[in-house]
Amino acid sequence: MKKTILSMFLAAVFCLATSAENYNVALGDVAAKLEEANPGDTVFVKDGVYENISLRWSADAGKDSPVVVTAENRGKVVITGESQLKIYGKGLTVSSLVFRDGHLSRGTVVEFRNGDNLAHECRMTDCVIDSYNPKRRDVSYSYVHLYGKDNRVDGCSFLGRKNLGVTLIVMLNYEECIENGHLIENNYFGPRPVYGSNGAETIRVGTSQQCHRNSRTVIRNNVFDKCNGEVEVVSIKSGENVIENNVFYECQGVLALRHGDRNVAEGNLFIGNGVRNTGGIRIVGEDQIVRNNRFYGLTGDRFFSALALMNAVPNSLPNRYMQVKNVKVEDNVFVDCASIEFGTGNDFERTLAPVGIDFVRNVVVNESLDCPYEAVAEVDGVRFKGNKTALSASAVLPKGFARTVKTACDIPSYEAVMAGKGASWYQRPEVENPTSSEIIYAGPGENLATVVSSAPYGAIIELTGDEYALESGMNVSTKLMIRAAEGKKPVIRYCGRSRENMLTIHDGADLHVKGLTFYGGLTPGRSMAAGGISTAADMIEPYFLTVEDCVFSHYGESGFIPIKGLKGTFGEKVVIRGCTFEALSGDAISYASEWEDKGRYNGDDLIIEDCSFSRILGIPVNVYRGGNDESTAGPYVYLRNCRFDDCCNKVRGAAVRIIGAQVLEISGCEFVNSGKAGVAVRLDEAPWEDITLKNLSYESNELLTALSEKCLSVSA
User: Fold this and answer.
1) Which residues share a beta bridge with 637?
2) How many angstroms separate the CA atoms of 635 and 657, rounded?
């Protein structure tokens, strides 16, 4: 009895001695406190906004009894500026922190290592990273890098991504990172605009060079909400990963089994709602399993298809395309999807069709289709069995397909999809930016730069005078319209003492200019303007621009361009309508500042219509997207009902130079004495580009550079 009592007493003492401790410290003191913390202890971080702080946190515990660092009050610990967090050691959990409105010059916001010291059995949960962007969109870095083994990222929200780089990367460049068993679940990945280049994935697991290594990462129960950076929303570049029960909501891209074998994509939901370029799953490699997924209202084709099985490159290098072999596509449902493709990318290089493919018990519903799939290459290597379709009445079904009755689809609502994902408690502080309907009248002699800079969001500035002298350029970073008063055609001249654009577009701009004349003539004793309407050099956000019924005249230097998108900037939609460009030494409209040939470009939707171009030494319309990268679907260029008179008659010149547009229409245009020493229209198309030339009028000079007839429709 005495021994029993003594044993109980000693056990109680031991429990007291080893019970978990709680600490309350400022953010900068966490690292020191972790040095004395034991498994099961919790370090509470005091409320505050912490700026430009370098955090290095380590523990020596385990996932069953971790050391926890968490906010004293959830959401009240805000980390900003050039702050970074490095997690390493074993058994450290980081919870309920907010990284917001920061910026890095390089590196990663949260990294599961410190130098060569990796993280194992560590966890990031219930955290937020929101709008951690540099000033320039072409500066690349990530929100999270996962190293080590058995780490977990769950219940987090990742928002406001606008620059180059992958949001979350599973790194495999250490031996200790192979077969890692990481878990990425219940996170919310928020909207991301089209970047216009490769390298803007939301999640990537591995790299091309690691395609023969197994990661064994699980990605499940996450929501990808309008993640439009590039074609690969989730890019799998390793083996034996599981991607299950995720929702891809209106994402202009796909889940790409890009490299690596034996991956499983199961139970995922893809909702396109008819949005442009929404896609499903693209398959490369061997022994992949795609089953029990649902695809609704996806409009993409080719690399953006609801389902795309790629053609392969013989003797392929790791970064190209391995043959699709022994793949099971089972029990999936496709409803109102534009494209299921076999042999995607078939060309002179990618010649190996998929083989050993089981396409079994799938349902394809789309009453506008005559065939359930498109065979871009041969389908002899595909076994079709037990599939059901509800297609057009005239559809002739291939072997392995039977008709079924179309039934109503139970597509969950946006609210239902988002419920319980990410840090649902987080709400970004609202910025008061009410839309104004105010009309601001600017008379002759007023300082337009001041009027523009002080205008409220959504205002209309109406110019009532005949002429305006700009001593400094106008800068727009809001939604604004600048227009001529009725019956007026105001002329804007630049007479500043240093070179500035007449009008510069900054982050946040949605600009509409109408009825103005931009005169580029030099004012004696003053500097010439740097340009007409141009973007700023440093931009992170896409912008919108509409220019209507304007005149751009007498720009006497080749570098002085009336409308220009600079390198590293991106116009989401640019409309130029009813404008006159005359007497120019350089280009008229230039979206051609990306020269690395990596598939980057400066504007997504470019619409130029009902314009006239005359006496132009440079290229009237110059758009460039170099390289053969297929990670984006743009730019979309529409050139309609324009006249070109005495333009670009230099040797090897061109009145229109549009290189690399993924969708191009030139229609109803007239070329008079233009491009006569070169060509009227210069193109350099890839086989997959959608090019239409129709109803064109041109003289005896060549119309265009050599073009593949299969790529376009031409009429004159």
Assistant:
1) 606, 664
2) 14
